[in-house]
Design brief:
The protein is of the alpha+beta class. The protein is built from three helices and eight strands, in the order αβββααβββββ. The chain is flat. The two termini are 27 Å apart.
């Protein structure tokens, strides 16, 4: 049965032009502020416009200067998970659908047994191969129930 499911997923992903992209978590060291919604950074101009303009600006310019935005894009989202720090069980993947011109960012984590009183959000930054300008990027966040 497991083999059938794997074959089905493989065939449907190829029939619909889907590809799971290679991703890596990226540390921006608080150089870009995440406020309202997710951010998709595809160009150096876009990145430069989002880097802090305060006393940390020089440090941030230095930290992000080698980010190759000709070959990569940077995706950021503010996750309100209920954790005080890194969410337990955090996983993410990015699926590119060529026909639909869409990238879907799938994020999941295990809900905390007891939420953090401090209400701290977690800023997740993901480095992916370059996403074309005409592609829509959709973020799907799924909290998974805690199980003992």
């Amino acid at each position: 049965m497991k083999r059938i499911v794997v074959i089905f997923l493989f065939l449907t992903s190829h029939l619909f032009g889907q590809d799971t992209l290679n991703t890596a978590q990226f540390e921006v060291n608080d150089c870009i502020q995440l406020y309202d919604g997710p951010i998709v950074i595809r160009t150096r101009n876009s990145l430069d416009s989002l880097i802090r303009k305060d006393a940390s600006s020089e440090r941030c310019q230095e930290h992000l200067k080698d980010l190759d935005l000709d070959n990569f894009s940077l995706l950021g989202i503010n996750l309100n998970t209920g954790y005080c720090q890194f969410p337990t069980g955090l996983t993410f993947s990015v699926v590119k659908t060529v026909q639909g011109k869409r990238c879907t960012v799938l994020i999941s984590y295990i809900e905390p047994l007891t939420p953090c009183r401090a209400l701290i959000s977690y800023k997740l930054w993901i480095k992916v191969p370059s996403i074309p300008e005409d592609f829509d990027v959709k973020f799907v966040v799924t909290p998974l129930p805690y199980q003992e």
